[in-house]
């Protein structure tokens, strides 16, 4: 089954629990991680990787000293990701829920991360789940770290992310299907 077919079937079955009806394009994937300084090793966490188009970009750009943790809840997506990235010693695919992000990191003796890249459908989460996610992000993200969020609703959620972050920037990627973009957020506010 192709990535597109699997993604579409998951979207039709689970609706807004899946962020998109199609995987991110290579252009959107590149734009989403374009603000990360790859010359500085660190820890990058991807949330909601799906079939891994952003994971592919992370793996291509990260040096051996950068640790990549890819968190995905759906077992079918996890299986695909593990098959594709089993040979990468600095990349680990974790099957789990973002509500346990701090626990996942603690299990790996990681206190804080440099960047979080999210493919989660955050605006469609319940308010409690949104607040839980951003509390977790605040607890694990370094003060100068970034939270990068893909979106298929360009600029629609600007004010939404401003409620949770001090600094929000947006980059538009018209070549994605559908046209999309990424928010680059810094300075997590207290929930």
From TrEMBL:
Transmembrane segments: none
Keyword S-adenosyl-L-methionine attached: yes
GO molecular function terms attached to this record: RNA binding; rRNA (adenine-N6,N6-)-dimethyltransferase activity
Keyword Cytoplasm: no
Its EC number(s): 2.1.1.-
Entries under SUPFAM superfamilies matching the protein: S-adenosyl-L-methionine-dependent methyltransferases
Name of protein: Ornithine lipid N-methyltransferase
Classification via Pfam families: Methyltransf_25
InterPro entries in the record: KsgA/Erm (IPR001737), Methyltransf_25 (IPR041698), Ornithlipidmtase_OlsG (IPR048196), rRNA_Ade_Mease_Trfase_CS (IPR020596), rRNA_Ade_methylase_Trfase_N (IPR020598), SAM-dependent_MTases_sf (IPR029063)
Domain Ribosomal RNA adenine methylase transferase N-terminal: 28-176
Keywords from the named record: Methyltransferase, RNA-binding, S-adenosyl-L-methionine, Transferase
Organism: Paludisphaera borealis
Taxonomy of the source species: Bacteria, Pseudomonadati, Planctomycetota, Planctomycetia, Isosphaerales
């Amino acid at each position: 089954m192709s990535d597109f077919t699997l993604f579409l079937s998951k979207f039709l079955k689970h609706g807004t629990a899946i962020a998109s009806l199609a995987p991110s394009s290579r252009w959107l994937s590149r734009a989403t991680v374009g603000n990360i300084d790859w010359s500085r090793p660190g820890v990058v966490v991807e949330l909601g990787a799906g079939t891994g188009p952003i994971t592919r970009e992370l793996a291509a750009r990260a040096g051996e000293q950068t640790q990549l943790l890819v968190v995905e809840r759906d077992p079918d997506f996890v299986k695909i990701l593990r098959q594709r990235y089993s040979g990468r010693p600095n990349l680990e695919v974790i099957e789990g829920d973002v509500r346990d992000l701090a626990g996942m990191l603690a299990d790996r003796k990681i206190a804080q991360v440099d960047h979080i890249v999210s493919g989660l459908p955050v605006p469609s989460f319940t308010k409690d789940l949104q607040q839980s996610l951003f509390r977790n992000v605040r607890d694990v993200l370094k003060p100068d770290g970034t939270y990068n969020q893909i979106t298929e609703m360009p600029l629609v959620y600007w004010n939404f992310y401003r409620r949770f972050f001090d600094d929000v920037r947006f980059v538009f990627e018209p070549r994605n299907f559908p046209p999309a973009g990424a928010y680059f957020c810094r300075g997590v506010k207290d929930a």
